[in-house]
Amino acid sequence: MPQTHASPQFRAAVFDAYGTLLDIHAATSRHAARLGGKAAPISTLWRAKQLEWSWILSATGTYESFWSLTGKALDHALAAHAVSDPALRADLLAAYGALDAYPDAAPMLTALRGRGLGTAILSNGSPEMLAAAVAAGRLGPLLDDVISVHPLRCFKPDPRVYALATARFGCEPGEIAFVSSNAWDAYGAMRFGFRVFWVNRGGAPVEYGLDGAATIIPSLSDLPATLA
After folding, report:
1. pTM (predicted TM-score)
2. What digits encode the pLDDT tens for the residues 81-112?
3. Which pairing describes strands 215-217 and 195-199: parallel, antiparallel, or unpaired?
4. 145 catalytically annotated
5. What is the Cα–Cα distance from 142 to 139, expressed in whole angstroms?
């Protein structure tokens, strides 16, 4: 059962993209036959290095697009698992550019839109990769905006990123329901002042005190009822 707390009136629901609305492991799943038993560990390391790159760059005041980091992280993951296949590398990167949306994403967004709630993505992704992913997942008509960190040239959990959402909807942080499956992102959003909903699909151990500061739900399907 979702862990719920009293909720304020919301103006908008703002979502992380990668891992929350979009299945980050879909790229390797599409090419699992070519990767064999290395598919899962490559996917896990790919994601870990992608995020690590973003944190290191932000901490040192430097920036590259998230798409560039995605390619570098893939190269590291393939090399770590002794996979040397340029065609496979190209196919994996192309697949990441058109990730599947989770099956519960569109029905949930439809329900929120039906209540007149604003909806948006707030993501580390570059504008081009987000546009491609939203189109591939057929989520565009269900979103009021897709907000990228790119104009700021820094990544989450920098508070300036979360401020992009309050500026977009012209509201206070507490009027936004921020939804992420990434515990570190949920923590950053909570520190900014958003009302946070952590989507803990895999039943991972609670981190960063989120059990006392966020509403924990097992899937996006639980969000509309929890917000109500």
Report:
1. 0.93
2. 999 999 999 999 999 999 999 999 999 999 99
3. parallel
4. no
5. 5
